[in-house]
Amino acid sequence: MSSKPLDYENLNENVKKTQYAVRGELYLRASELQKEGKKIIFTNVGNPHALGQKPLTFPRQVIALCQAPFLLDDPNVGLIFPADAIARAKQFLAMTSGGLGAYSDSRGIPGVRKLVAEFIERRDGYPSDPELIFLTDGASKGVMQILNSVIRGPSDGILVPVPQYPLYSASIQLLGGSLVPYYLEETANWGLDINDLRQSVEQARFKGITVRAMVIINPGNPTGQCLSVANIKQIIQFCHQENLVLLGDEVYQQNIYQDERPFISARKVLFDMGLPISKELQLVSFHTVSKGYWGECGQRGGYFEMTNISPRAVEEIYKVASISLSPNVPGQIFMGLMVNPPKPGDISYDQFVRESKGILESLRKRARIMTDGFNSCRNVVCNFTEGAMYSFPQIRLPPRAIEAAKKLGKVPDVFYCLRLLEATGISTVPGSGFGQKEGVFHLRTTILPAEEDMPAIMDSFKKFNDEFMEQYEDHRGYSRM
Q: Where does the record place the Aminotransferase class I/classII large domain (predicted)?
């Protein structure tokens, strides 16, 4: 029988080459072990509710009423739901053309886009145009939409930070473009050196690649750093000089665990820089309800906002968005609630603030427990998680461990993470899945396990790590930066 179009050998080569480490070999092995009855702590993906974080009450109340609008007609509705949640549900339902079961505009509900624009203006101090905001099924869909518009073929390159969230490497591969890495400097708290950026662009051009866009992830994933205003200014000037569109992945902007470097959006920095650059640099910014302290990963609500993109280009992006008819409507309403939460004086305000502060204060404590825990381990060094929800420790593997990994045909940090999983049930992602310098090894874990469980998890990690190092250490030296 002749081979068929969907047989493996006949698949699109870009599909076969695409890798996504967050759900890769480690995750598959962890799932197998879980089926066998082993307790697994899934720290491989930023999925707060799966690790026990309770959802915020107010947005879920509003969504429940929007999903079941007949409850609004029940005379006892006010006994179960607060008046402000009832009012919000009615407000959102009035924005739709038939409730949550009806398609919206392909850019998203106009009323929700207006709420997003107002949020951006409050945040940055500059007006935002709802017509330049597209609501999406999580930030990932928005990123893919823009990359699809930018990448014309294999000779088009996208500058991506390394280590990077594999959404970018996977999407660029899938869309047939070229990833152009620029390395973050671990010893400078994952900072960015503009000279390295220039070198990356020059090397790409030497290979015949046209660099067309630059990605920044702020706060960083997997590295957890927050970019300074000075660094963002340098990036904007660089993109302006090189005629690149800047893609600002800012999905963790609410998750900040230190006071020295608050989150400042690339858009605010751009407008603060003034003319002519504020009218010339092309910028696309992304945000979502899936990340941040809301952690509504399954709801798939997100947006992107375009700055200095021509009207004809916006029309083409709208045309492509229209192929999917509509982003999911419940996700859009979640986004509307995130950008316009309860205000002082609202019935639900005190509870909303109490729940929000509780999550963020706990995450700040967990970031410190995890960083200190890693730094107490033999041959492990870790920068503090300033923001986002990840820790990215460097594991200084002894040469014998590297040799043992190679004999098994494994990348050394994959070998280490598999051993960790088997011994402790802690499911992480090897640093090689995010990119790293040659001969340097890491793992990425979320800081999301429950605060009360964190000391025991770090003790379990330390016990495994120190025994692993004792087994393989031969005092000939380690992999170092």
A: 82-449
DSSP classification of residue 241? H
Does the pLDDT value for residue 20 go beyond 70?
no
pLDDT tens figures, 151-184: 999 999 999 999 988 889 999 999 999 999 999 9
State the Cα–Cα distance between residues 65 and 60, nearest whole angstrom.
9
Does the predicted model carry a pTM greater than 0.90? Answer: yes
State the Cα–Cα distance between residues 391 and 107, nearest whole angstrom.
Answer: 35
Amino acid at 201: V
Lowest mean pLDDT among 23-27, 340-344, 409-413: 23-27
The Cβ of residue 12 has, within 10 Å, a number of other Cβ atoms equal to 10
CA-to-CA distance for 285 and 160, rounded, in angstroms? 15
DSSP string covering 366-403, please? Answer: HHHHHHHHHHTSTTEE-----BTTEE--EE---HHHHH
Given pLDDT bands bounded at 50, 70 and 90, which one contains residue 481? Answer: very low
Tokens of 408: 């098994």
Amino acid at 379: N
User: In the beta sheet, which residues pair with residue 314?
Assistant: none
> Regarding beta strands 210-217 and 245-249, do their DSSP bridges make them parallel or antiparallel, or are they unpaired?
parallel
Residue 23 has pLDDT above 70, yes or no: no
For residues 279-305, give the mean pLDDT. 94
Tokens of 371: 């960083």
3-state secondary structure (DSSP) of residue 245: strand
Q: What is the 3-state secondary structure (H, E, C) of 10-22?
A: HCCHHHHHCCCHH
Instruction: Pull the structure tokens for residue 91.
Output: 């407000």
**462 three-state secondary structure:** helix
Which tens digit of pLDDT belongs to each residue from 115-154?
999 999 999 999 999 999 999 999 999 999 999 999 999 9
Q: What is d(CA 413, CA 441) in angstroms, rounded to the nearest whole number? A: 6
CA dihedral 30, 411, 202, 169 (to 10 degrees): -20
Average pLDDT of the segment spanning 4-14: 79
The CA distance from 296 to 312, in Å, is 34
- Provide the CA 441 distance to its chain's centre, in angstroms: 21
Q: Which residue has the tokens 């930023």?
A: 46
Q: Which residues pair with 185 in a beta bridge?
A: 191
DSSP symbol at 346: S
Sort strands 302-307 and 133-136 into parallel, antiparallel or unpaired: antiparallel
Amino acid at 195: N
- Check pLDDT > 80 for residue 18: no
SS3 287: strand
